[in-house]
Amino acid sequence: MAKEKIRYVCTNCGEPSLSWAGKCPQCGAWNTLQQEAVIETSLGTAVSAGRPLQPASVSALISKDQTRLVTGMPDVDTVLGGGVVTGSVNLIAGQPGIGKSTLLLQLADSVSKKHRVLYVSGEESGHQIGLRAERLGVSGKQLQLATSTVTEDIAASVASKDYDLVIVDSIQTIAATAISSAAGSVSQITNSAHLLIQAAKQSATAVILVGHVTKEGAIAGPKVLEHVVDVVLQLEGDRYGGFKILRATKNRFGPTTEAGIFEMEGQGLQPVSNPSAALLAERQVSDGSIVLATLEGTRPLLVEVQALVNKTSYGYPKRAASGIDLNRVNLLVAMLERRTKLSLADQDIYVNIVGGMRITEPAADLAVCMAIGSAAKGLQLKANAVVFGEVGLSGEIRHVPFIEKRIAEAKKLGFEAAIGPQQKSGKKLSFLRGVPDVRAALNQFLEKD
Question: What class does CATH assign to 277-448?
Answer without folding.
Answer: alpha beta
